[in-house]
UniProtKB/TrEMBL annotation, chains A, B:
InterPro entries: Homeodomain-like_sf, HTH-type_TetR-like_transc_reg, HTH_TetR, Rv0078-like_C
DNA-binding is among the record's keywords: yes
Pfam families: TetR_C_41, TetR_N
Transmembrane regions listed in the UniProt entry: none
Sequence ranges assigned to domain HTH tetR-type in this UniProt record: 11-71
Keyword Signal appears in the UniProt entry: no
Source organism of the structure: Litoreibacter albidus
Alphabetized UniProt keyword annotations: DNA-binding
GO MF annotations, alphabetized: DNA-binding transcription factor activity; transcription cis-regulatory region binding
DNA-binding region: 34-53
Record protein name field: Transcriptional regulator, TetR family
Length: 205, 205
DNA sequence: TTCTTTCACATACGTAGTGTATGTCAATTG
DNA sequence: CAATTGACATACACTACGTATGTGAAAGAA
């Protein structure tokens, strides 16, 4: 029955390495992060890293996946809390923007991630987030609220707007001051997907 | 009269290095691009590089600036050709999206640029582009066409949408097929900044 | 012109960091 | 209890950046 001891230990080291990776990548950036330092801080050596993740990029992928998946979950929750629908979509966007205030998200997911792992749209975690947005948009479209445009394209750009707003807020000096502006502008652009003026739309449940 | 010989030669080497940098950064990516290979292909050595640009990042900055400035110019021209105003703004966005089909733009400006040089909103070239968008938006706002939202925020996100659409098109397998979808979705979102439905707006000159 | 200085660039070197090949010891299996 | 697997450490090779130093041609002085 203790035949899981090995696997559990390995899972523990994976966690340690991912945690150390988050810290190092956030603080130094991907390129400047040293795998020697990183693994040493986790009480390990590079041997563990290359055994578990293949290479530096592999660890980055694991780290990005973890953060990004948490973001998607949080955003979705924010949307469902408010009851889904159009307001839910806006809430998802707002949540996404606010999360980007965290330096880890900013540096790892928004800046280094795309450069190291390629276009975010291809990441498994981002795809999950995108599928969520697509689902919400389809539901709205079936009610006739959305303009007759390719839904996937709309979802991608909508996510992109939130991501960009987030990046702007994050890189701004007065983050707390720009946050409301960014959110307002996001909602402003988002209303572009609607068939009618937003004032005319309340709740249709 | 030949007192410019020195400076001219230096300018020539700078051009050679930037050109070689464009090729190498686009093909290999910033991290994997070797300065030895790069400079050798330009008929020079790393000495020239470090003398002219300080370090690898310095060359990257010069390359990005060159490309990005050309993009801004081209986009602005596209907007002015159509006569400015609302249609001009859309034309700028379309131009931006189409330019991102070039691998150089995609890899250097959209992917590696932000990771190496930081948030694009801080780049001098991007600021120039942003100022243009802000100017156009202000003009539209003075005609009462724009919603009462912070113009800078709007401009940033609008540029961001175009940039994101571009990135999507670029990373798509069937670029020619996704391009129209991306443009349509961009225009869709862009109408969100308008006070009224876009159908009611033609030209107001 | 000729001597001196400057400077754009090349050459040589130190260092750091990644990835791989090999070693080792505990956990598993029979 | 012997044999084997495998997770991780150690050792090594290679690459590449940045710097310190050298060099030869252009620019200025006399």
């Amino acid at each position: 029955m203790e035949s899981q001891t090995r696997a559990k230990k390995m899972e523990a080291t994976r966690k340690k390495l991912i945690a150390a990776g988050r810290k190092a990548f956030a603080k130094k950036g991907f390129a400047a992060a040293s795998m020697d330092e990183l693994t040493a801080e986790a009480g390990l050596t590079r041997g563990a890293l290359y055994h578990n993740f293949g290479d530096k990029k592999g660890l980055m992928a694991a780290v990005v996946d973890q953060i990004d998946m948490a973001m998607a979950t949080k955003a979705k929750e924010a949307g469902e809390e408010i009851g889904g629908g159009w307001e839910g979509l806006l809430a998802e966007g707002r949540a996404y923007i606010e999360m980007a205030l965290e330096p880890e998200v900013q540096r790892i997911v928004l800046l280094d991630g795309p450069a190291v792992l390629g276009d975010p749209a291809q990441w498994p975690s981002q795809n999950r987030c995108l599928q969520g947005t697509i689902g919400t948009l389809r539901a709205l479209a079936s009610e006739g609220l959305i303009k007759p445009v390719d839904i996937e394209a709309l979802a991608r750009l909508l996510n992109g707007v939130a991501l960009n707003a987030a990046l702007w807020v994050a890189s701004s000096e007065d983050a707390q001051g720009t946050l409301p502006k960014a959110i307002a502008a996001f909602e402003c652009l988002a209303t572009g997907v609607l068939n009618k003026a937003p004032q005319a739309v309340h709740e249709s449940g």
